Amino acid sequence: MKKERGRKPKQLPAPEQALLASVKSVAVSYYVRQHGSGISDEAITDVLCDIVAMRPDMPKHLGKEVTCSLMCSREYNRVEDQGETPSPYIGNGRAVPENPFLLNMRLGKEGGLFSAYLPEAAYWALQVDLKNGRLKFIEATFIKTRRRNGDLISLNFSEAPPE
Q1: Are 106 and 90 contacting, i.e. CB atoms less than 8 angstroms apart?
Q2: CB distance 92 to 76 below 8 Å
Q3: Do 27 and 46 form a contact (C-beta atoms < 8 A)?
Q4: What is the pLDDT along the chain (163 residues), one digit of tens a residue?
Q5: Strands, E, within 1-160: which ranges?
Q6: Which of 9, 41, 60, 121 maximizes the CB count within 10 A of its CB?
Q7: Is 13 within 8 Å of 151 (Cβ atoms)?
Q8: Residue 141 half-sphere exposure, CB side, CA atoms within 13 Å?
């Protein structure tokens, strides 16, 4: 006699979680590298924050530091000069990637980290507003995937905490 196999219940999608962080400090770094076909660069803005609220409520993370790393990258290809000088010069750069690319969220005992690649114009505008203190809060929405990690879904930068 065959045993009936019970169907496994469908797993519900993991609920979204969110954290609200207040900006404490902003540090900017820049990296440039020559490679065979040209030059690439990367600008990184690390925003150090304190977690002020979480949804669902997770008191163990409140008050902990979290770093939001915003990045922008470009590539420049070598172009041969059409004039008399045979030496190559660097042509116009193109942003890499041109679309936002949200990376992951990591929360642990000591704090957390989340990061994103942004289009060039958005990166530089945000960097200026963060450095001059106009943007004071970052809200990050994510879905927890493993014990301390999650997939970042959205970032919201604001002058005042969302209501």
Answers
A1: no
A2: yes
A3: yes
A4: 555 566 766 666 668 999 999 999 999 999 999 877 788 889 999 999 999 999 998 888 999 999 999 999 888 776 554 554 444 445 555 555 567 889 999 998 888 999 999 988 899 999 999 999 999 999 999 998 777 888 999 999 999 998 7
A5: 16-35, 38-55, 65-79, 89-90, 94-96, 101-108, 111-117, 137-144, 149-158
A6: 41
A7: no
A8: 9
How far, in Å, CA of 40 to CA of 71, rounded? Answer: 13
DSSP assignment letter at 2? P
- The CA distances from residue 113 to 13, 33, 101, 121, in Å, are 23, 25, 15, 23
Contacts of residue 133, defined as CB under 8 A and 6 or more positions apart, other chains included, come to: 23
d(CA 136, CA 25): 10
Residue in this structure with the two tokens 């030496």, named with its chain if needed: 87
β-sheet bridge partners, residue 125: none
